[in-house]
Every structure is written in C-alpha cells, then in structure tokens.
Design goal:
Elements: H1 10-20, H2 23-29, H3 37-48, E1 66-68, E2 71-73, E3 77-79, H4 92-103, E4 108-109, H5 117-122, E5 129-133, H6 138-150, E6 155-159, H7 169-174, H8 184-190, H9 194-202, H10 221-231, H11 238-248, E7 251-257, H12 260-268, E8 273-276, H13 290-301, E9 306-310, H14 316-324, E10 329-332, H15 334-343, H16 345-365
Parallel strand pairs: 3-10, 4-5, 5-6, 6-7, 7-8, 8-9, 9-10
Antiparallel strand pairs: 1-2
Helix pairs in contact: 1-15, 4-16, 12-13, 14-16, 15-16
C-alpha cells in the first residue's frame, strides 16, 4: 500500500477532491459560466502580478492578524458563501464552519446550503456570517433574517449579482440536482466514490436545509427546485438593499460589486464592507477579473467602507497581492471546497494552513512584518501590475 503524498498546496487538495467527489458536485464548484474566461482570468491576473523581493530587513517577528468587519481574524481571509457545500462532503457546512472557527477566521453560510442555519449554530460555539439573496418572496426573506438573528450570526452578507442565474455548461450537461438524479451516468459515477457515498448514508442532510419547511408551496425536492428557480428577483434595486439593512440592523456586507459607480452606491448605504467579486466567474462571462477591478474601487470608496476581494484566491501569495492593492481581506470559495471534498474538516484546516504559511513567507520575502502595513510598495510594478513582462 503506497502512502499518499503530502498535501503542500491547494492544487493537491483539488486533485484529491476531484477523485473523491461525484462529478456533478465537483464540476459545480470547479466551473464558470459559458467559456469560463472570467473564471480563468481571476486566477491568471493574480498570477501575473510580480512581487518585490527585499533583503537585509529584520523579519524575525511577523503578524498576520487583522480585523474584518469588526472581527479579529488570524489571517485576512473569510470562507465565502458556497451553495451545496454539504454535497462536497456529508454535513459539509458544519465541518467547514468548525474548521473556520478553530482556525480563527469567519465562515459564511449560504442560503442555498444543505445544512440549515440552525444546524450550523447548534454545532459551533462562535458566531458565523449568513448570506442571503433578494428574493421575490419578501416574507421568506424577513423570516430568514429573523432566523439569522436567532442563530446569533454576527454579520449578514447580501449577494447583489444573482438577479438571474448565469448558465454553467457543466451543470447542464451533468443534470445537476440535489440529491443526484438516479440516471445511469450518475449511478455509475457514484460507484467510483465510495467514501462520499458512505458519508451521505450516515447523514440525514440531503436537501436545502434553509428552505425545507420554510419555503411556501415547496413540500418535496421537485417543488423546492421550482420554487428556488423562481425566487431570484430581477427587480432588485438599492431600495431593497436599504430594506435589508433596516430589517437586519447589524453588520452588513454587500457582495458582487465590480463597478466604481456601484461601489459608490454601496458605500452610500452605510454597509460595513463590500466585496469586489464577479461570483467566481459564474455569472457574467467576459467581465473583468476581481483583482483588476479592485484598485479603482479602493481608490473611490476605500476611505468610506471596507473593501474585500473574492475570486481566484488559491494561495497565500494571492491573499498578499490583494491586500497590497487595497483589499482589507479576501474571501475563499473553491480553495476550501477542495479541502472539504478531499479530507472533510481536516481538509479545510489544511487549506487554511497552506494559505497562512504561504502568506507569512511571502510577506517576509517582501520585507514586511505586519499584514496591516502591506501596501502596493511590495509589488514590482505598483501602478500597472498586469503589464510587467518579466
């Protein structure tokens, strides 16, 4: 029996997750819309930014701790809201939340999660964040916000870029469903994933936990899917954001901003943070990468609202580059989902350990000792970081 090679980077977790997670759920996480050009640009543009190596600097004492939305974090990273996390691994949201809690970073639960908000609250000891959409059923939204308060969540994240659902070709081809449809192709694929199947047999959580029993006229899987498809609201406006802010009354994070004008409107709402994000390249294919959009938004509103980045973060170097360009923190999605699919809770912790180690070493090589002091001075070409040829 050969020992498994050590996991040294997020890519190792991705490859292991690909072997262990059923194709439809792995593809759900590891895909973008249409040609996936924006999904790939998120990663490519981060990789193209070069760093300034400095020497003969005292780097003995280093600090990665900072604040995100008033919460102390061990590194400037939070786990992004990801739908169907509980299909990457049985009880996935609970395991990811526990991992984040033990590591000292925030976890964000998606409305479209498999484990319910009450489930996650019952299995964790510290407040987490909750993500919602503006839905047509405002009564459901109001009740969900009430449940978020009852669960003791410390912040609410409102996703703004999902008024309509972008098409992801892999999901269409795979016939994505929760739970999986018993087609011949799906059944054959499941026979190659015994670890995943064993986990799912041990849990009762197989559907959308935040919706079952709470969504009107949705008593079974088919009606629940139909209800969900009709709920994303194309009439979303800034007045709805104000309504959510009043109904919630606590820390509010606005996710899905790519445009400077929208960033100004977001800051005008009095929200605590905004997330520069293109939804991981899963909505508008052909939109700019998040890291390209970041500097102009920081320049426009960074003195009025915390600006974070989401999209393409796959290493501690990526985290450092985002901070150098003005982000106060980043969200990770695919990276921790790979860890979860590969090794469960331990895989999420390993993902965070990898990011912390890479962030710490890279910051030191750049001659800085405190993440709060990192700025564009660590970049080889701070003004035009994508145009450096080498």
């Amino acid at each position: 029996m050969f020992a498994r090679p050590p996991i040294t980077c997020v890519e190792d977790l991705r490859l292991l997750a690909k072997r262990r997670v059923p194709r439809m759920f792995y593809d759900y996480a590891d895909s973008g819309s249409w040609t996936e050009s924006t999904y790939r640009a998120n990663e490519r543009d981060l990789q193209s930014i070069l760093l300034r190596q400095r020497v003969a600097v005292n780097i003995q004492r280093r600090n990665l701790r900072t604040m995100m939305a008033g919460q102390e974090v061990s590194i400037p990273v939070a786990l992004a809201p990801c739908g169907l996390t509980g299909m990457q691994c049985a009880d996935g949201e609970i395991l990811a939340a526990r991992a984040a809690e033990s590591f000292g970073v925030p976890f964000t639960l998606s409305t479209m999660s498999v484990c319910s908000i009450e489930d996650v609250a019952a299995h964790t000891s510290r407040p987490f964040w909750m993500q919602i959409y503006v839905m047509r059923d405002r009564d459901f939204m109001a009740r969900l916000i009430g449940r978020t308060k009852a669960a003791g969540c410390s912040a609410l994240m409102l996703t703004l870029d999902l008024q309509i659902l972008g098409q992801r070709h892999k999901d269409v081809r795979n016939g994505l469903s929760v739970p999986p449809r018993p087609t011949l192709a799906n059944l054959l694929n499941l026979t190659t994933k015994p670890r995943w199947c064993a986990g799912m047999l041990r849990t009762r959580r197989h559907s959308f936990g935040n919706l079952v029993g709470h969504a009107k006229d949705a008593s079974d899987v088919a009606s629940l899917v139909a209800w969900t498809a009709e709920q994303f609201d194309p009439t979303l406006s800034w007045a709805d954001v104000e309504w959510v802010k009043r109904a919630w009354g606590g820390k509010l994070i606005l996710k899905g901003v790519l445009d400077v004008e929208d960033a100004r409107r977001a800051a005008d709402t009095g929200a605590d943070a905004l997330v520069v994000s293109n939804h991981g390249g899963r909505q508008l294919d052909g939109a700019p990468s998040s890291i390209r959009a970041l500097p102009a938004i920081v320049d426009a509103v960074g003195d009025r609202i915390e600006v974070w980045l989401d999209g393409g973060i796959a290493s501690g170097q990526d985290v450092l580059k985002a901070v150098a360009l003005g982000a106060r923190g980043v969200l990770i999605g695919r990276a921790y989902l790979y860890g979860l699919g590969a090794l469960g809770q331990a895989g999420v912790i390993r993902c965070l350990e990898i990011l912390r180690n890479e962030l710490d070493l890279t910051m030191a090589f750049c001659g800085r000792t405190d993440i709060r002091d990192v700025d564009c001075g660590i970049l080889w070409s701070p003004n035009r970081p994508w145009e450096v040829s080498g």
